[in-house]
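Long-time lurker, first post.

We've been arguing in lab meeting about whether zinc ion would sit comfortably in this protein at all. Half the group thinks yes, half thinks no, and nobody has a model to point at. So I'm putting the question to the forum: if I give you the sequence and the SMILES, can you give me back a predicted structure of the complex? Inputs are below. Any interpretation is welcome too.
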Amino acid sequence: MTCQLCGDPDSRLYPAGQRCDRHSPAAIAGRTVPTPDPDLTLLGLRQAAGLPPWPGVNLSSSTLNDDRAIETGKRRSTPAQFREARARQDARRAADKTARTSH
Ligand SMILES: [Zn+2]
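Top reply:
Settle the argument with this. Predicted structure of the protein with zinc ion, as tokens:
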């Protein structure tokens, strides 16, 4: 997600919306952006409990679905993203074909 005010891709979700450090509520109030204790972030707590980093997200299947959506035009993309998604899909199709014909 990108900052809703400037489009910076390095942003976090606040109650006010998706914001970068420059547009965070603390920065707008004239204070420094607090740095969280890494052991107390969601990621740190999940790692301490021996859980995977993010629940319910299978990165390989979401990448596959994104590539399909980009290739079919259901998801907006830049020409470069389109070419990358198409190349990944072509590689998957070639690997599928190889797997099917080798039986
Ligand atoms: Zn911003």
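For your lab meeting: The radius of gyration is 20 Å. The beta strands are 11-14, 17-20. Whichever side wins, do check it experimentally.
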